[in-house]
Inverse folding.
């Protein structure tokens, strides 16, 4: 365990002395990973979130969640994969991502201490969360920019992963996402559900982020600016969790 970060450096801006924010080094079969904890003073739930193949634990949307949710009673735990911590720029295959993530599960369970656990991630991290939600006992999944397919290759669909969780799933998807925009994701859910089991009911909610691409970046001409996108992400995730806990 590394030393706790000074409270004054915490991005959530809460009063000094009231928060135990820290970084935890996590041994995994693939090398050390890291958990970055932004703790709520009186937590009612824990959101454990993984980064994408770009390897940014401080992506704008995840950083916005880490800054805002602890003040709303939700501890945010961000996981930095071993490959990224080792300084590599290319993510390994999906199975290796799952190995690193699952190695951190006991520490996350200790942090949660019996509180409801919501798992999530952006892009490749969202795929990991969907694949492992049942294994870690998650009560819900939050997907930021789920990569439905590689850009320009809609036939390589990953919809089966999005349908894998048996708990409620929230998807925040940019309207300009080349990995599958919000409309594509919604249509794929309907089509896949109808094909696999027409009688099945799944709680998968897709929220479109106007003008945003896969990284939730917007253009000057987009209907929302970057701060508004961040607020939309935070408010949508908060509302989703509020329904559960």
């Amino acid at each position: 365990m590394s030393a706790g970060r000074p409270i004054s450096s915490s991005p959530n801006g809460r009063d000094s002395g009231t928060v135990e924010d820290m970084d935890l080094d996590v041994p995994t079969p693939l090398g050390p990973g890291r958990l970055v904890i932004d703790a709520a003073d009186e937590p009612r739930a824990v959101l454990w979130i993984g980064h994408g193949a770009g390897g940014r634990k401080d992506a704008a949307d995840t950083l916005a969640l880490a800054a805002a949710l602890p003040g709303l009673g939700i501890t945010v735990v961000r996981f930095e994969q071993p490959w990224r911590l080792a300084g590599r720029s290319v993510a390994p295959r999906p199975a290796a991502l799952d190995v690193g993530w699952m190695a951190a599960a006991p520490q996350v369970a200790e942090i949660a201490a019996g509180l409801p656990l919501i798992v999530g991630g952006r892009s490749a991290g969202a795929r990991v969360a969907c694949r492992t939600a049942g294994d870690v006992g998650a009560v819900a999944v939050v997907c930021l920019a789920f990569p439905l397919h590689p850009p320009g290759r809609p036939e390589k669909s990953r919809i089966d992963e999005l349908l894998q969780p048996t708990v409620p799933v929230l998807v925040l998807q940019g309207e300009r996402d080349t990995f599958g925009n919000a409309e594509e994701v919604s249509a794929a859910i309907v089509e896949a559900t109808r094909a696999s089991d027409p009688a099945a009911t799944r709680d998968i909610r897709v929220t479109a982020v106007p003008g945003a691409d896969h990284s939730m970046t917007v253009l000057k001409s987009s209907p929302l600016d970057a701060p508004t996108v961040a607020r939309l992400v935070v408010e949508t995730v908060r509302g989703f969790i509020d329904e559960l806990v």
